[in-house]
Design goal:
Helices cover 70% and strands 2% of the residues. It is globular. The N and C termini lie far apart (61 Å). It contains 15 helices and 2 strands. A two-stranded antiparallel ribbon has the order 1-2. It is mainly α.
Length: 365
């Protein structure tokens, strides 16, 4: 009986440990943001260049890469929460972050759908690699299913945002958390002394009031000084005004952009000849039609132009896909690989193996 009481007393303590560990981990990530970012970048780069990444250990290496991406996304969430708790601190946020943070705070459904979409994008190549071990039919079935799920998520985001264009990525990007002044003082007393001397040299202290006036900027650099103090139109706009609602041809363009990967993946799944131009021309035509149907007028916002610029650069991946890759790019890359040093050609050969056999390796959506 005593043992049962002892066990019952320890259950609440055991259940309280995981939240404490998560809180401690969150504090560690927040206080060491720069170091964590450097470690993530180093690990991500390592997965790109380690020997045999795509041949002998492709599944293990891609699992590591996907895990790093998911962990980085979790860190972004922790850092976003930490920044939102900082009060009274003037921070300049990009229009993309202002827009996505607004919808995340306003709609839990948006946050869940955007998180699901990001997770699929980070792990889609891993799913394809796993499915390929069971045959080509299973692989293409998984590819089509993943594209359908992503399209469904994008239509949900389009609905939640009241028919506003999609942004990439759908979640806020990582921001820099300002360092704690107390920690800076403890870490470097000498730097603080030098900064103080410099500040005193640049400020004028009034004798009667004791207030300090900052020194005027360099006369040759007045324009840049004034521009750094000016708020732009996007800085004062409400988050919902950073993207205009789409209607008419612009709405059709957004639908085509969402459905294009699904249509292209189905065409590729039914195509038995990799050098057949029909699926490639179909997918590229849909992407080009979406760009032509969009409205690019005076009311186009900076965030909308930035999103379409991203989509324009992403169209370059069509040179690495389908029939264009098989008939044009592939031969050029293989001939180039033979002329490069062995170390560089080895890495390029690994990527050629990846581009030859996997759909999501060159997916831009």
């Amino acid at each position: 009986m005593d043992s049962l009481k002892f066990t019952g007393c320890n259950v609440p303590n055991a259940l309280s440990l995981p939240p404490k560990w998560l809180h401690a981990y969150s504090d560690f990530i927040t206080k060491n943001q720069s170091s964590v970012t450097q470690i993530e970048s180093a690990l991500r780069s390592l997965t790109y260049i380690i020997p045999g990444r795509f041949r002998d250990a492709e599944l293990a290496s891609e699992s590591l890469h996907s895990s790093i991406q998911l962990l980085s996304m979790y860190h972004d969430t922790l850092l976003t929460r930490a920044i939102s708790k900082l009060e009274g601190l003037p921070r300049h946020q990009s229009p993309h972050n202002r827009y996505t943070k607004f919808w995340i705070q306003r709609s839990k459904f948006y946050r869940r759908v955007a998180t699901l979409l990001s997770m699929i994008q980070y792990t889609e190549l891993l799913w394809e690699m796993t499915a390929k071990r069971r045959g080509e039919k299973v692989r293409w079935r998984v590819v089509v299913i993943l594209e359908i799920i992503k399209a469904f998520c994008r239509f949900c985001l389009l609905r939640i945002t009241n028919s506003r264009p999609l942004v990439t990525p759908p979640l806020p990007e990582r921001e820099v958390i300002p360092e704690d002044p107390v920690q800076e003082e403890d870490e470097s007393v000498e730097d603080e002394f030098l900064e103080k001397r410099t500040a005193e040299a640049q400020e004028y202290k009034m004798k009667r009031t004791g207030l300090s006036l900052p020194m005027l900027p360099n006369p040759s650099d007045i324009s840049s000084y004034l521009l750094s103090k000016v708020l732009t139109a996007d800085d004062i706009k409400p988050p919902t005004a950073l993207l205009n609602k789409v209607n008419g041809s612009a709405q059709i363009a957004e639908w085509i952009h969402i459905l294009q990967p699904v249509i292209y993946s189905i065409a590729m799944a039914r195509n038995k000849d990799k050098k057949n131009w029909q699926p490639w021309l179909l997918g590229l035509s849909l992407e080009y039609a979406a760009r032509q149907l969009r409205k690019d007028g005076l009311r186009t916002t900076a965030l909308e132009r930035d999103e379409w610029n991203k989509r324009g650069w992403a169209m370059g991946w069509w040179a690495m896909r389908g029939a264009f890759y098989e008939n044009v790019t592939k031969g050029f890359l293989y001939s180039t690989s033979q002329k490069l040093p062995s170390l560089v050609s080895g890495i390029l050969d690994d990527y050629l193996y990846l581009w030859d056999g996997y759909y999501f390796s060159t997916s831009s959506n």
